[in-house]
Amino acid sequence: QVELSESGGGSVQAGGSLRLSCGFLGSSFSLYVMGWYRQAPGEQRELVATINAGGGTNYADSVKGRFTISRDIAKNTVYLQMNSLKPEDTAVYYCNAVHTWFVDRVYWGQGTQVTVSS
Fold it and tell me: Which residues of the chain have pLDDT under 50?
C-alpha cells in the first residue's frame, strides 16, 4: 500500500513561484513513475508533469520552461518547482504514483490548492 501526501500549495501573485512536495509512504519508491496533475474548477484533471524511474521527464506544453519536476530517492519525495506562475495555473494539484511494472498500482494524493492572482 502507498500513501501520498502533498504540501507547499498556497496563494501567490502572477509571476511568483511555489514549490510543491509529495511524500511517498510505502515501499519501492524508485520503481514508480511519479506525476503531478491539476484540476481547475469545472475542468477535467490534466497532466502537468511526470518523472520516471530513470529520471526522464515529461511536461504539458502549457508549463514547459516554467515548471520542473524532480525526485529525491533518499527522501522518497517528488517536487514540482513552479516559476513564472500565471492565473491560469490556479487549480488543485495532485500527486500521482504508477508502478513501472504493475500499472494497475495507481495512487493519488489528497491534493493541494494553488491560487495565482493577477
Answer: none
What local confidence, expressed as pLDDT, does residue 103 receive? 85
The three three-digit cell numbers of residue 116, written as one number? 495565482
Task: Reduce the DSSP state of residue 65 to 3 states and report it.
Answer: coil
What type of residue is 25?
Answer: L
Q: Report the DSSP beta bridge partners of residue 23.
A: 5, 77
What 3-state class would DSSP assign to 102?
coil
Torsion of CA 118, 113, 49, 34, to 10 degrees: 160
Spatial CB neighbours of 108, under 8 Å, sequence gap ≥ 6: 4, 94, 95, 96
Cell of 51: 518523472
Instruction: Classify residue 24 by burial, with Cβ atoms within 10 Å: 0-12, 13-18, 19+.
Output: buried
The CA R_g of the chain, rounded to the nearest whole Å, is: 14
Amino acid residing at 95:
C
Distance (Å, rounded) from C-alpha 16 to C-alpha 21?
17
CA end-to-end span of the chain? 40
